[in-house]
């Protein structure tokens, strides 16, 4: 049995786990959800739900991972002593691989736009036209480059791959966002954006759709249910205090989502001031890929030559956000192949990368019919159900004294804390019910 990797420092783990959680969803999904769901009212509901719902599930994953020191399949197999646990783990590995298959396509688009900002600086127009065209070759090439980048980091293992790069990339990401916020805030139109983002419309707080959106956002932004946090948890030292380290990850993730909103929403209103259309025909704010690939580039074009540098910085930011998430996704099936199947790490990384690229290729060649379907199947259906199953494992299947033993290794007095008074029954009764209700609503 090879020596398992471990994070060498607390900050290394927090930045890697927050990097996994901070992805494109925080940067493009969160801000537009805020602006179209009553501004700061949505932020308050989101903050509440992130701690009421996402944090307990995050803790379940971290505790299961660290206690069993193994990948998702073996860990769930051990605590349930059944093939059902292993089957759930394999379902998690398949889900996360499919998420990475579509994520890598989007990550490839980010790389293409980043490259375009670079070639535009030197005025290579024909290259720029090709980079901006939605062609199969472009999508395949950049998807492959994105997956290769991800693989190169995962090849290094925990300490010299994932941790080393997370500690460099995450602070860079925050610095780029802050610099862009300062620049954008001084542009005409930014004030309207700030008020759309920060002024709450409390009349909407109890709208079911707002609650469901906020819950979904909290869940997916922490990349829960698919084993990324479970695998990262298995690399945490036994000396660490898990409840506090989990809270730190949740706070960093929420913090990045909120500062991303401070950049994106004022940017959209600056774009509006410069004559770019930011509302769809039904009056809602444009969101998702249209926001990132049409509204913001149009804004960068409208601010002249400095726009090229802003564009370059912005897409660098998007690439970093995408890579810090994709490395955690690739680690889930790789950890399984290395530990359960005894495959050498190098071989496991390239084999999984090839399989995932194969899936991405199928999606690219049948883009209109498959892209949206794979996203819905994985993030709207599979991920909440996996989160539900993890709550059942942590709340009902795994013995409570084993959980307490695991937590005590990092915080000896844990049974006297508020966390231990609330979390066990909470993850047992409250989380499964809320997730089930949310799931039923989103499907029906």
TrEMBL record:
GO terms for cellular component: membrane. It is found in: Membrane. It is a multi-pass membrane protein. It comes from the Bacteria. PROSITE patterns: NA_NEUROTRAN_SYMP_3. The chain crosses the membrane at residues 39-64, 84-106, 139-158, 170-190, 210-233, 245-272, 306-327, 348-375, 381-398, 418-440. Keywords: Membrane, Transmembrane, Transmembrane helix, Transport. InterPro entries: Na/ntran_symport, SNS_sf, YocR/YhdH-like. It holds the Pfam family SNF. This is Sodium-dependent transporter. It comes from Salinimonas iocasae. The lineage of its organism: Bacteria, Pseudomonadati, Pseudomonadota, Gammaproteobacteria, Alteromonadales.
């Amino acid at each position: 049995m090879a020596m398992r990797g471990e994070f060498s420092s607390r900050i290394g783990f927090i930045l890697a786990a927050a990097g996994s959680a901070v992805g494109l969803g925080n940067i493009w999904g969160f801000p537009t959800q805020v602006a179209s769901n009553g501004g700061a009212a949505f932020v308050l509901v989101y903050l509440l739900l992130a701690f009421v719902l996402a944090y307990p599930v995050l803790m379940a994953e971290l505790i299961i991972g660290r206690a069993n020191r193994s990948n998702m399949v073996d860990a769930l197999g051990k605590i349930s002593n059944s093939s059902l646990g292993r089957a759930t783990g394999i379902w998690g590995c398949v889900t996360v691989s499919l998420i990475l298959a579509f994520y890598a396509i989007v990550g490839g688009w980010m790389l293409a736009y980043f490259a375009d900002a670079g070639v535009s600086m030197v005025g290579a127009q024909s290259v720029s036209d090709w980079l901006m065209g939605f062609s199969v070759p472009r999508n395949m090439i950049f998807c492959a480059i994105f997956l290769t980048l991800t693989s190169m980091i995962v090849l290094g293992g925990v300490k010299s791959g994932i941790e080393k790069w997370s500690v460099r990339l995450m602070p860079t990401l925050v610095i780029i966002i802050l610099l862009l916020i300062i620049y954008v805030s001084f542009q005409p139109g930014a004030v309207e954006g700030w008020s759309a983002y920060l002024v709450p419309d409390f009349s909407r707080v109890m709208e079911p759709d707002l609650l469901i959106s906020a819950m979904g956002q909290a869940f997916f932004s922490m990349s829960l249910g698919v084993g990324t946090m479970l695998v990262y948890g298995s690399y945490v030292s036994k000396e660490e205090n898990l409840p506090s380290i989990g809270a730190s990850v949740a706070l960093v993730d929420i913090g990045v989502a909120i500062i991303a909103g401070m950049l994106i929403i004022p940017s959209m209103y600056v774009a509006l001031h410069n004559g770019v259309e930011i509302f769809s025909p039904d009056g809602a704010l444009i969101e998702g890929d249209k926001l990132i690939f049409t509204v913001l580039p149009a804004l960068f074009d409208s601010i002249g030559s400095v726009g090229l540098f802003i564009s370059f910085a912005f897409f660098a930011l998007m690439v970093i956000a995408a890579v810090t998430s994709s490395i955690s996704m690739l680690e889930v099936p790789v950890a399984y192949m290395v530990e359960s199947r005894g495959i050498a790490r190098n071989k496991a990384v390239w084999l999984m990368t090839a399989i995932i690229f194969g899936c991405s290729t199928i999606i690219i060649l049948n883009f209109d019919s498959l892209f949206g379907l794979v996203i819905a199947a994985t993030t709207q259906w599979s991920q909440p159900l996996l989160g539900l199953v993890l709550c059942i494992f942590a709340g009902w299947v795994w013995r409570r004294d084993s959980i307490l033993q695991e937590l005590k290794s990092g915080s000896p007095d844990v049974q006297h804390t508020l966390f231990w008074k609330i979390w066990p029954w909470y993850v047992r009764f409250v989380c499964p019910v809320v997730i089930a209700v949310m799931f039923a609503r989103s499907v029906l």
